């Protein structure tokens, strides 16, 4: 697939945004809305330790989300990284127990939790290299940054293959992005700006980088030099270079249609923010209000219901009965 700076930069900015993590919160709320009423209908579950434990963890994450989001809006990522890590433990914890008491609803519950897990996983992966290069031993020079010999974020064009899941409703256009050549940072120097960066000599075979100002050094570029076709294992070259930040150019550009042969996205339900036309007729719900499930016709404007963490986001229910 041909490299495209705007497409890749927009995916980086999307997966590290508060709005993207709102999805994880919405999916978690949907899971709680399924599990808690079921648990209350089965009093014996109170004595089955895994369910109360993980139920309390889910509710605690919902209570603390607004704080993690507010910090993320201010450019503080640590709280949300921790929040996502806590959520990612929940599907495994429930799967290790006995959930047969929920009957058929367990499949819907685990689907919602898996979708939440996927959002947190993408968010954390986008920040993996930033986490490595903010290690105090790396920043101080006590450990040579060359110890990291592989890109553990989105290597090369890997991120482009996430478009089908990152955009449940594929936009017709996205912002155009361009390097800001008035700002530079070379490998090993303290990063002066939070956001996406590109090597000064262009994209080549290396991934873009997402970095955070003042808390980390700039990473090297990691162009892919070989890849095993069967296992997908990649080898990287470690290249010390100068980077420029990638910023919106103030214009919109068309987003090409899905890659040829791509299957329709089956990773989750459609989403639609309030104020936008409904993209597909059917039953929809929002975590912004209890008992919000209702039918919408295609093109009907989705209503704003308010909420304590941002705009109302509607999700098309997987159960259309």
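^ Assign residues to that structure.
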């Amino acid at each position: 697939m041909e490299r495209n700076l705007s497409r890749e930069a927009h995916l980086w900015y999307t997966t590290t945004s508060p709005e993207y993590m709102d999805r994880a919160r919405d999916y978690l709320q949907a899971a709680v809305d399924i599990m808690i009423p079921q648990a209350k209908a089965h009093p014996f579950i109170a004595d089955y330790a895994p369910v109360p434990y993980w139920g309390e963890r889910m509710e605690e994450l919902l209570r603390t989300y607004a704080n993690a989001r507010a910090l993320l809006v201010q450019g503080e990522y640590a709280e949300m990284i921790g929040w996502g890590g806590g959520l990612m433990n929940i599907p495994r914890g429930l799967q290790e127990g006995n959930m047969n008491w929920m009957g058929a609803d367990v499949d819907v519950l685990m689907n919602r939790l898996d979708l939440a897990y996927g959002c947190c996983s993408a968010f954390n992966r986008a920040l993996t290299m930033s986490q490595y290069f903010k290690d105090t031993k790396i920043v101080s020079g006590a450990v040579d940054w060359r110890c990291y010999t592989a890109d553990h974020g989105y290597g090369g064009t890997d991120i482009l293959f996430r478009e089908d899941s990152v955009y449940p409703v594929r936009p017709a256009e996205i912002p155009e992005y361009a390097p800001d050549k008035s700002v530079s940072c070379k490998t090993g120097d303290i990063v002066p700006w939070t956001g996406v960066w590109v090597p000064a000599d262009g994209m080549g075979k290396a991934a873009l980088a997402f970095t955070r100002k003042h808390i980390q050094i700039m990473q090297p570029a990691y162009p892919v030099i070989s890849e095993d076709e069967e296992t997908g294992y990649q080898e990287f070259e470690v290249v010390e270079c100068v980077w420029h930040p990638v910023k919106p150019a103030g214009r919109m550009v068309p987003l090409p249609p899905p890659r040829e042969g791509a299957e329709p996205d089956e990773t989750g339900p459609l989403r639609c923010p309030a104020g936008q036309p409904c993209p597909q007729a059917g039953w929809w719900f929002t975590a912004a209000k209890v008992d919000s499930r209702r039918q919408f016709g295609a093109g009907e404007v989705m209503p704003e219901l308010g909420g304590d963490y941002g705009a109302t986001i509607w999700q098309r229910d997987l159960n259309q009965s």
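The first strand starts at residue 173 and ends at 179.
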